[in-house]
């Protein structure tokens, strides 16, 4: 029986690729990419985009400042005008036929009726018809409530009292004592009335009292029904 030829070992050239094209394909062929490498690449791409946007936008503008308007409440150069508020209270004396005579502190807009009420009201024989209950009160005034049939007192006549024409105080003939008997008229105001009368020669109307130092519209209304010219 004839012997078979002995097998020969493959040479190195038999194991190598047949040609240079196969070798290039082994070197340049696709390389598998792991998930970790894909995530790193994505983050790198996002960072690159953000940096590019910031570079293109340029530096951020400076923050705006809110400044106060000139003359406004926050303007240190604005000046504040201080006004003197009018008194909101008056002290008045309730006397005569009232249940609780005395000095009372009332609102500056109070009337004679408010004072009579604060003093407990008039007594049974108090003659309120001789008072002008709607007359305004002035600080330091004395309001006297007469009794029925009582003659008008010489001092401290009630504010806005209604008197007969013969009992009105004549501004052109009254002396200081008679003037001081009027509501809200003290020694200083009585002297001012006499000085104004001397300067004028005589008062033409009751409204001329507005030219007297210390007499304003409210006090004039309290005097109007008790004086004459």
Please tag this protein with its features.
229 residues, two-stranded parallel sheet
Topology:
Blueprint (H helix, E strand, L loop, with lengths): L11 H4 L4 H9 L6 H23 L31 E8 L5 E6 L4 H7 L23 E4 L23 E2 L5 H5 L6 H14 L16 H8 L2 E2 L1
Parallel strand pairs: 1-3, 4-5
Antiparallel strand pairs: 1-2
What would you say this structure looks like, in words?
The chain is α/β, with parallel strands linked by helices and 229 residues long. It has a domain at 89-228: Orthogonal Bundle (DNA polymerase, domain 1), CATH 1.10.150.320. Helix content is 31%, strand content 10%. The chain contains seven helices and five strands. It has helices at residues 12-15, 20-28, 35-57, 112-118, 176-180, 187-200, 217-224; strands at residues 89-96, 102-107, 142-145, 169-170, 227-228. The chain has a three-stranded mixed sheet, covered by helices on one side. A hairpin with a 5-residue loop joins β1 (89-96) and β2. It is rod-shaped, with a radius of gyration of 55 Å. It starts with 11 loop residues before the first helix and ends with a strand.
């Amino acid at each position: 029986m004839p012997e078979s030829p002995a097998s020969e070992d493959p040479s190195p050239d038999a194991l190598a690729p047949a040609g240079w094209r196969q070798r290039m394909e082994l070197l340049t062929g696709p390389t598998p990419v792991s998930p970790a490498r894909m995530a790193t690449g994505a983050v790198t791409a996002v960072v690159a985009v953000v940096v590019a946007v910031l570079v293109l936008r340029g530096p951020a503008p400076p923050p705006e400042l809110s400044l106060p308007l000139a003359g406004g409440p926050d303007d240190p150069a604005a000046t504040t005008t201080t006004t003197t508020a009018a008194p909101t209270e008056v002290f008045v004396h309730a006397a005569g036929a009232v249940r609780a005579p005395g000095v009372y502190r009332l609102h500056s807009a109070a009337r004679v009726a408010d004072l009579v009420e604060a003093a407990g009201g008039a007594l049974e024989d108090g003659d309120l018809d001789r008072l002008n209950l709607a007359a305004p009160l002035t600080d330091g005034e004395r309001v006297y409530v007469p009794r029925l049939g009582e003659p008008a007192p010489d001092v401290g006549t009630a504010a806005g009292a209604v008197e007969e024409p013969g009992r009105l105080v004549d501004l052109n003939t009254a002396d200081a004592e008679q003037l001081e008997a009027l509501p809200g008229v003290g020694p200083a105001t009585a002297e001012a009335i006499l000085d104004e009368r001397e300067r004028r020669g005589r008062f033409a109307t009751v409204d001329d009292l507005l030219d007297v130092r210390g007499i304003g519209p409210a006090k004039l209304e309290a005097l109007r029904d008790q004086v004459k010219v």
